[in-house]
């Protein structure tokens, strides 16, 4: 499969583990990294395609210009790999199996536990066909000043623009994904054998009902423990 990862300078601590795990699960993976030109990685990662992008990202991949930028990156990655589908995966996410990403449909995602009928961003799959349909739909309309988070926006449009039988949204709670803020060896050992599809290691910590900023060092430490448990 072909994988697209959108990075910032702070993702350097996580990215290598993410790519290693993708290739462990999918030895034939084609990995494309699209870096942020405003805050690029300190060095080129070990990937098949590396691009420094200049489109605005609205902080954490938010806004219609970012959505359009991601769609164009998806097409570039699929063209480079000669593929018909793309998996978007976050740098702080560990893919554990391909079981949930199989098939030739237009969209596969995992429902947000906070917002029903919306897919979470750490990992989802799209076809070239639906990527082009979404792009055409966006360009044919005027858009207001809404936030337009890339994950919610892209997947909701995918669901609206293709037949119901051509998209899959695993319901929440699915028991197929997990999110952690930190992690130790014992927790990693449990998660590694829990039958999960992926683990998002950059979950914001919730303290007093408020979401705190994600710390990339915590995510990197959790990914290191998971790598050892999965080895």
Helix and strand run: EHEEHEEEEHHEEHEEEH
Which residues form runs of ≥5 with pLDDT under 50? Answer: none
Strand content: 15-25%
Number of separate helices:
6
Task: Count every beta strand, where a strand is a DSSP E run of 2 or more residues.
Answer: 12
> In whole angstroms, how far apart are the ends?
22 Å
Give a quick account of the main beta sheet: strands, pairing sense, barrel closure. 7 strands, mixed
User: Main sheet: which strands, in order across?
Assistant: 3-2-1-4-7-6-8
Descriptive notes:
It is a single chain. This protein is α/β, with parallel strands linked by helices and 231 residues long. Helix 3 crosses helix 4 (150-161). It has helices at 12-25, 64-81, 128-139, 150-161, 185-192, 216-230, and strands at 2-7, 30-36, 49-53, 85-89, 93-95, 107-110, 123-127, 167-170, 177-179, 198-200, 206-207, 210-211. The mean pLDDT is 92. Strands 3-2-1-4-7-6-8 form a seven-stranded mixed sheet, sandwiched between helices. The protein has a three-stranded mixed sheet with strand order 5-10-9. Strands 11-12 form a two-stranded antiparallel ribbon. A hairpin with a 2-residue loop joins strand 11 and strand 12 (210-211). The protein contains six helices and twelve strands.
């Amino acid at each position: 499969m072909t994988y697209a990862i959108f990075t910032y300078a702070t993702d350097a601590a996580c990215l290598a583990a993410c790519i290693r795990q993708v290739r462990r699960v999918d030895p034939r993976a084609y990995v494309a990294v699209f870096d942020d030109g405003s805050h690029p990685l300190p060095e080129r990662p070990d990937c098949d395609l590396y691009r420094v992008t200049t489109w605005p990202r609205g902080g954490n991949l938010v806004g219609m210009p970012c959505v359009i930028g991601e769609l164009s990156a998806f097409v570039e990655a699929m063209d480079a790999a000669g593929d018909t589908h793309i998996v978007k995966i976050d740098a702080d996410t560990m893919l554990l199996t391909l079981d949930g990403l199989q098939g030739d449909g237009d969209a596969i995602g995992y429902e947000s536990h906070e917002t029903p009928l919306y897919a979470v961003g750490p990992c989802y799959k799209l076809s070239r066909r639906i990527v082009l349909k979404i792009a055409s739909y966006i360009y044919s309309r005027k858009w207001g000043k809404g936030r337009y988070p890339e994950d919610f926006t892209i997947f909701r449009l995918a669901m609206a623009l293709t037949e119901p039988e051509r998209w899959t949204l695993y319901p929440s709670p699915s028991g197929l994904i997990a999110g952690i803020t930190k992690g130790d060896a014992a927790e990693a050992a449990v998660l590694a054998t829990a039958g999960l599809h992926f683990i998002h290691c950059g979950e914001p910590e919730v303290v007093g009902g408020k979401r705190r900023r994600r710390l990339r060092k915590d995510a990197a430490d959790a990914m290191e423990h998971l790598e050892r448990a999965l080895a």
